[in-house]
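TASK: fixed-backbone design
INPUT:
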């Protein structure tokens, strides 16, 4: 069991190094722009979570096998339970699919200022299931990705702002 835990830990760290190299590759491919750094950081965070879940799950199954459990029925049962949970957790599936499209379409990244339902906030974390936002008051909001219908990205490319300035009729416009 100790050897399994050690191998799982070393494998996780090695895969984290691969994810780090992938982040640097994405950043270099984007000519070290701010957007490419944000995209690399966001994808790196998601890949690290995925690596941790896969390695820990595999280590747990291997540990059960070492302890003498027959894991084949367990895996078959997990597949059946997975299908049943898929029907029960349709909102979770909707959130994950929406999260994949958010990442694939590069709609927003960690660090972007976005507006959802008329409220502006900064993206602090992005997973395939939800987005963690922090508004200007410092409140943290966890928004399921499937709930985001219209998202305005205030950080992308360029912006414009119109400001009304009140000037008296007898004032010089140049001043």
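OUTPUT:
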């Amino acid at each position: 069991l100790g050897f399994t835990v050690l191998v799982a830990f070393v494998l996780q760290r090695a895969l984290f190094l691969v994810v780090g190299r992938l982040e640097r590759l994405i950043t270099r491919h984007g000519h070290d722009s701010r957007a490419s750094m944000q995209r690399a950081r966001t994808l790196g965070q998601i890949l690290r979570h995925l690596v941790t879940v896969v390695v820990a799950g595999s280590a747990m199954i291997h540990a059960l096998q070492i302890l003498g459990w027959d894991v084949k029925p367990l895996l078959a049962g997990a597949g059946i339970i997975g299908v049943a949970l898929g029907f029960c957790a349709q909102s979770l599936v909707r959130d994950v699919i929406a999260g994949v499209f958010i990442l694939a379409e590069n709609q927003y990244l960690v660090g972007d200022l976005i507006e959802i339902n008329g409220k502006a906030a900064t993206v602090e974390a992005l997973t395939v299931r939800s987005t963690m936002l922090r508004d200007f008051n410092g409140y943290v909001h966890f928004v399921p990705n499937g709930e985001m219908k219209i998202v305005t990205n205030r950080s992308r490319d360029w912006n414009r702002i119109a400001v009304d300035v009140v000037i008296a009729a007898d004032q010089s416009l140049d001043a």
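COMMENT: Residues 34-66 form the longest helix (33 residues).
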